[in-house]
Amino acid sequence: MNMNKNWQEWLSSNNRGWRLIVGFICVFFLALFLHFREVRVEVLEVNTTASRYIVAQIDFEFPDYETTIVLRQQAMQDVGNIYQIDDKQIRDARYLLEEDLIRNKNWRRAAPQSTFEEMYKAADELETLLLEARFTDPRTIQKIKEMGLPDNSYYEFVSEGTHSSIGLSPEFWERTSQQILQSDAFHKETVGYVIRSFEARDWNLVQDTALERSLQARVGRTIPEKMTKVYAGTRIIDQGENVTSRHLTMVQSMKQAISESRKLWDPLTIIASFVLSIIFVTISGLYFRISQPTFIRSLREISLFVCIVLLTLLFAKFTEYILLKSSSDIIGAVRFPIVAPFATILICILLSPRTALFAATFLSIILSVSLAVDHSHFLILNLVTSIVVIIGSRGLRKRKEVFTVCMKSWLSAIPVLFAFTFAENHFASYMLLIDIGASFVFLLITAVLVVGILPALETLFGIITDMTLMEYTDPSSDLLRRFAVEVPGTYQHSLVLGNLAEICAGAIGANGLFCRAATLYHDIGKINNPQFYTENQQGVVNIHQLLTPLESAQVIISHVTDGEEIAKKARLPQSFIDIIREHHGTTLVYYFYRKQLELKGNRVEEVDEAQFRYPGPRPRTKESAIIMICDTIEAATRSLEIINEQTLTELVNRLVSEKAEDSQFDDCQLTFEELANIKKTLVKTLLLSHHVRVKYPKKEKPNS
């Protein structure tokens, strides 16, 4: 509670230094928005027809996938056919060797140092090498070496059209023999015997297609991506040309090149963004200083305005991010996002239509040059919908009416979208339907966001909208229902006073609805002691006859402090609490003051006048002063025996003059002209409410 009180006091301070700080905050965030703006390029979709030609705005390189594919295919052709020995033949040869070792003992004389186990292991080693052996042309072997792959199992082989029943070269068997002997696990005569048993055979070579594909893929990956240079002014695509993936790649590469050319972190680029931001904010400040000086002097209103503007920029940037990160179908569908009405309707409701009109223009320009959108179409559509929102938002009394206003704005967008379509030489197209649907979605989202954010902004900045005021006038609310039941006389007085104050406020351009709503609660403190007030006394005995004048005055005065306490417990707005405290100002409870003087023999020095005065403060707003005047006059008219224009004029002039002489209007900025209009309106309204009715004769039965 104390934090909220301190916050509201800070907003009410109107300190120039704080206002400048809020301006600097606006400059900073606006500069960020301008600095990190997206680059807009034409949105294309594969297999569609380009509606216009696109020219390169800057020199750039793009990954030429088509050329890269051609180069990789050429490189892959360097890999020739690769063959391997039929593994069934290898196993058959191994089986025959084992049979020979078992049945023919002559091998022991040919290799006297060898054992059967050694022969068996040598056969295993040879079988493994034969299974791993691959035969290909010299060019393929060279390619394998260039890629740094192991080539010890590859052997040169020039195909002559037949790959069956061929003998392997002596060089192959010599190299194989050397590979087996490298392990030092076998005698030379053992290896020679095993090799000779295999060497004499003819072999069938079969193509190893799996290895070929794997090797070709690795060769293809060694070819770097081809980057093709495009110079500024080169036409990327012609109007009517079919869009391909190559065109998409070129456009995206151009966008990236433009973004990189901006050099976001270059000091000059950063300075440029801040200079633009300062220019925009300074122009705005000068406009408000000339056209709305009260606005520029209010820290509360400036802070609220900046807050809404920053929220709108955030909303716009989030929308842009979603669209750019989505598929090209969505980007193409949402060609003209509608963002500005979000701020316009909030400012119109919370501040004023005049301020909202400036915000609509300001934001439409900022957003059109900063977002990746069609600048001219975006500007026109957002301006039109924002102006319609301003027109429709005047006098909003219910939150659900926000949806009605947004739908009216959507209806105004439809002819604009038709105009855009006609300008493209189309009478109607499916894109028009998509644009209409997208605009409906944007304005529906705007309505939902406004209804959701509005109460938070009202609470945060201590501003009451007409919608909230209407909610406070609901007689079915707990506090008003209790007020009507427990203090019926005062409640009726508040109803009459509310209508009177609303009419007077309208006469001088003050907030009449606020006056009507606030007066319903201005005497809420009388709930604690209703019997002490004449409008609630139903018997002939006046309870004040049992009290001293001082005690009676203190009881009467206490309804202000009691009302303030009740209002705080009920969480009424601070402006309502101010009315409760100010509607009597620091006036004197004159009736009981005179009674006290009479008791003291008219010795003024023995009576403390301060004990008979309300604690105040005096009215600080025009609305508060109007309620004070109307409260005084409405109660006083009940004591008039004759009510006509003369008596009412005399009464109003006298009581208002007394208040003025008592300095009650010194802090409320009421002008003499406004005071005269209030008095004139009071007399006119009271005359109408006390008009004389025709006296109807009593009905008599006709003589029979």
List the helices and strands and how they pair.
Layout: H1 2-13, H2 16-35, E1 54-55, E2 60-63, H3 65-76, E3 83-85, H4 87-103, H5 107-110, H6 116-132, E4 134-136, H7 138-146, E5 154-156, H8 170-181, H9 188-199, E6 205-207, H10 209-221, E7 227-230, E8 235-237, H11 245-261, H12 267-291, H13 293-296, H14 299-325, H15 328-333, H16 340-350, H17 353-370, H18 375-393, H19 401-423, H20 430-461, H21 466-472, H22 478-486, H23 488-508, H24 512-519, H25 549-569, H26 574-582, H27 590-599, H28 622-637, H29 645-661, H30 672-689
Parallel strand pairs: 4-5
Antiparallel strand pairs: 1-8, 2-7, 3-6
Plain-language structure description:
The protein is mainly alpha-helical and 704 residues long. The chain has three domains: 76-221, no CATH class; 294-462, Orthogonal Bundle (Arp2/3 complex 21 kDa subunit ARPC3), CATH 1.10.1760.20; 468-689, Hypothetical protein af1432 (Orthogonal Bundle), CATH 1.10.3210. Helix content is 63%, strand content 4%. It has helices at 2-13, 16-35, 65-76, 87-103, 107-110, 116-132, 138-146, 170-181, 188-199, 209-221, 245-261, 267-291, 293-296, 299-325, 328-333, 340-350, 353-370, 375-393, 401-423, 430-461, 466-472, 478-486, 488-508, 512-519, 549-569, 574-582, 590-599, 622-637, 645-661, 672-689; strands at 54-55, 60-63, 83-85, 134-136, 154-156, 205-207, 227-230, 235-237. The strands form four sheets. Strands 1-8 form a two-stranded antiparallel sheet. Strands 2-7 form a two-stranded antiparallel ribbon. Strands 3-6 form a two-stranded antiparallel ribbon. Helix 3 (65-76) packs across helix 10 (209-221), helix 17 packs antiparallel against helix 18 (375-393) and helix 22 (478-486) packs across helix 23 (488-508). The two termini are 79 Å apart.
